[in-house]
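Appendix B, record 7
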Amino acid sequence: MPDGMRLVNKVALNKVTRRLAPWLPGLGVVIHHGRSSGKVYRTPVNVFPRPGDRYVLALTYGADTDWVKNVMAAGGCELFTRGRHIELTAPRLFHDETRREIRVVERKILGLLHVHDFLELHVAPVA
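Structure tokens (predicted):
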């Protein structure tokens, strides 16, 4: 996505999306901690549940964003989606030009936005 859109999202749209995303299909909020500050952040994302207790998140701004770096460094995060809090672990970045891990409608939309990077996480075992 263009840098200008990134700024608009960060300043305005994310504040609204953060409130709606936990309840809407295909969206969620990643709860993660800053690598240096330890501060808790909430980042709205496109989320796709997959078989085998996996979730795939579309990286609309690529893999080089702070929230992705935070999740990778921590080895996981919490996801709030469809009204549920889910602990996720074992993050894995992958690049997929075909976007085969996501539904057809979103596949086409994310294709128009040139989104090819994704983050796969697994549901953490219950302690």
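Remarks on this record: The mean pLDDT is 87. The longest strand covers residues 84-95.
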